[in-house]
Amino acid sequence: MSPAEFDSAGLNKLSPQELAALDAWLLRYTAGEAEMLQRTNEEVREAAEDTRIVSRVQRPFEGWDGNTLFRLENGQVWKQRQPGRYRYTGDDLEVTIRRNFFGFHVLTVNATGRSVGVEFVR
Length: 122
Fold this sequence. Notes:
Blueprint: H1 3-8, H2 16-31, H3 33-40, H4 42-50, E1 53-56, E2 63-64, E3 69-71, E4 77-80, E5 86-87, E6 94-99, E7 105-109, E8 115-120
Antiparallel strand pairs: 1-6, 2-5, 3-4, 4-8, 6-7, 7-8
């Protein structure tokens, strides 16, 4: 939440104890109910769709190895932020990048469903 959103929601009027209680509730909500709401609530589903990026990885693409840069056809560049390796030999280069519940971005190879954490470069 941006500072402007924080202020416009009136959260700047809360005491430190009230903010701590709200933070605790938000954490419990995010860990449990939010995933269910993405499946069952149309407004939540639409908001989640707005945060998705669907593009194709430019060739050559053979998966990731721990330090991979993902150059997308839309001009964006993302880098792998989580360790791990995955070998991909398919022809379908479409990927989806979405923000997870903790605010981090995850790249998924649509053809296989395999995912890795990424961060935006440019």
